[in-house]
């Protein structure tokens, strides 16, 4: 049976008029992180909860380390964007390589899943991700400790990247994922700024401090308001909106986040009522498979990344009293079945037969998704192998230097997701 957009909208409106129970949706400071869980954790730490205190000790160490790292800006790149303005963000297409059959290798050709090392020579993407992670860590550390030093350091970084006229990034991605001989900027480049979703939660936490001035906050909201306008009016932005794979999901995850942050709730609601449920219909099969992601050479990585974007969109929708966690399209497609389909592989109930050239531990890669699903779905479908004691794994990881990053991730999960 085929369904048109009107069918999808009608079913979605039923969900809209039967909102989820979220009494605190209008007052929460953060958008993806659940403030109510952090409040509970803070109380438990004050009451002497050793597990949470251990996680906090880890976050404090991370925040202190962040403060020792240099502050970067888009102005530090040696290359100049095609616009001639270094304030414009610049990155290269990740999987594009010189064509050995062509003079100077141009135009480049695509090798899916194989990262061209030339990408790392332009550091804007690396610095931006580094900034987003730093601001989230500093924000969480400040929330639990009230140490103003974390706010001061966060402001130093935010002002450099977004606000100071000499160093700020222009609010566009006109030259994101450039491909020599092919494109000076692509719609696929909208994926580059996905980490700003985490950065905004960090900003929300830091802005509770009196030292985070009204001018700082209005400046940040002004920058993201301009960026949101670019996303919805530029040719590149409008092209990204039409993509039906993980980049389309990341586009709407960002759009809703920026709209909520800047107070543009009508823009968020418009997306949540129309194109977002339509995208669920397009991306998922009834059994939960994601065909467009399964066609990639790293099918597990892309499928889990896309589901993670969907989980974040569902969390963002809560602020508009909309339940995407349990929403089903007229044909029965949903992010919940998407989760259940991947879960059987994470649990090793079925062997992964799709390509995954990068390798890795399927269960570990799934831990963040499992953490949120276990709460949103009332702990249904949790793994028989589930590492329910996340912090215990964090302690084990700390004994192995190669897993230090996983230990840090686990500590963040404990304090912001409530899983331990």
Mean pLDDT: 89
Separate helix tally: 18
Shape-level CATH architecture:
Alpha/alpha barrel
What fold name goes in the CATH topology slot?
Answer: Glycosyltransferase
Quick recap:
With 420 residues, this protein is an all-alpha fold. Helices cover 53% and strands 1% of the residues.
Describe it.
- The chain is mainly alpha-helical and 420 residues long.
- It has a single domain (5-417), classed as Glycosyltransferase (Alpha/alpha barrel).
- It contains 18 helices and two strands.
- A two-stranded antiparallel sheet has the order 1-2.
- Helix 7 crosses helix 8 (235-241) and helix 13 (299-317) packs across helix 14 (335-346).
- The longest helix has 22 residues, at 124-145.
- The termini are far apart.
- Mean pLDDT is 89; it is low at 16-28 and 380-399.
Name a few traits of the molecule.
420 residues; mainly alpha; two-stranded antiparallel sheet; 18 helices; 2 strands; 1% strand
Q: How is this fold's topology laid out?
A:
Blueprint: H1 5-16, H2 35-46, H3 50-67, E1 96-97, E2 109-110, H4 124-145, H5 148-163, H6 196-206, H7 214-233, H8 235-241, H9 246-261, H10 265-273, H11 275-283, H12 291-294, H13 299-317, H14 335-346, H15 362-365, H16 367-376, H17 390-398, H18 404-417
Helix pairs in contact: 3-4, 3-18, 4-5, 4-6, 5-7, 7-8, 7-9, 9-10, 9-13, 13-14, 13-16, 17-18
């Amino acid at each position: 049976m085929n369904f048109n957009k009107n069918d999808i909208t009608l079913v979605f409106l039923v969900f809209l008029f039967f909102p989820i129970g979220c009494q605190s949706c209008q007052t929460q400071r953060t958008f993806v992180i659940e403030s109510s869980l952090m409040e509970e954790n803070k109380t438990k730490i004050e009451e002497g909860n050793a597990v949470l205190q251990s996680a906090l000790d880890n976050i404090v160490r991370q925040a202190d380390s962040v403060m020792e790292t240099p502050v970067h800006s888009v102005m530090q790149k040696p290359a100049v964007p095609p616009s001639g303005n270094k304030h414009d963000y610049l990155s290269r297409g990740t999987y594009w390589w010189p064509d050995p059959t062509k003079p100077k290798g141009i135009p480049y050709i695509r090798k899916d899943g194989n990262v061209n090392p030339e990408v790392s020579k332009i550091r804007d993407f690396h610095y931006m991700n580094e900034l987003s992670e730093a601001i989230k860590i500093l924000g969480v550390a400040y929330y639990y400790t009230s140490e103003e030093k974390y706010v001061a350091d966060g402001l130093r970084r935010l002002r450099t990247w977004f606000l100071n006229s000499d160093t700020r990034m222009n609010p566009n991605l006109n030259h994101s994922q450039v491909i020599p001989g092919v494109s000076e900027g692509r719609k696929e480049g909208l994926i580059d700024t996905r980490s700003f979703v985490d950065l905004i939660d960090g900003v929300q936490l830091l802005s509770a401090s009196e030292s985070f001035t009204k001018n700082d906050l209005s400046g940040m909201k002004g920058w993201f308001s301009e960026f949101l306008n670019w996303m919805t009016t530029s040719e590149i932005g409008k092209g990204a909106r039409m993509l039906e794979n993980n980049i389309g999901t990341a586009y709407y995850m960002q759009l809703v986040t920026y709209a909520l942050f800047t107070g543009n709730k009508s823009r968020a609601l418009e997306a949540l009522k129309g194109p977002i449920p339509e995208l669920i219909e397009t991306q998922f099969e009834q059994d939960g498979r994601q065909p467009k992601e399964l066609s990639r050479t790293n099918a597990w990585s892309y499928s889990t990344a896309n589901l993670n974007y969907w989980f974040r969109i569902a969390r963002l929708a809560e602020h508009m009293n909309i339940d995407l966690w349990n929403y089903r399209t007229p044909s029965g497609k949903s992010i919940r079945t998407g989760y259940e389909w991947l879960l059987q592989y994470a649990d090793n109930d079925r062997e992964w037969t799709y390509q995954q050239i990068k390798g890795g531990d399927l269960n570990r890669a799934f831990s963040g998704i499992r953490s949120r699903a276990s709460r949103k779905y009332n702990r249904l479908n949790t793994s028989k192998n589930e590492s329910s004691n996340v912090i215990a794994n964090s302690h084990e990881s700390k004994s192995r230097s190669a897993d230090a990053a996983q230990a840090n991730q686990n500590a963040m999960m404990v304090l912001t997701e409530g899983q331990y």
